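Comment thread on ticket #2218

A.B. wrote:
> Attaching the input chain for the structure job we discussed in standup.
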Amino acid sequence: MTTATDPSDIDSMPFDPHSARLVEAFRGALIRMRDGEDLTVVDLKGSL
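C.D. wrote:
> Ran it. Output below, let me know if you need it in another format.
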């Protein structure tokens, strides 16, 4: 079983811009898939 991350610990974590772009690209792809849109090569390469 995994433990939940305490939200107060997030502020002390280092910020990685590349990871943030990956998360945003993945979130955007999930939203487009939810809306019935197809994923494109741009979606796959968008965070690289």
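A.B. wrote:
> Thanks. Noting for the ticket: The mean pLDDT is 75.
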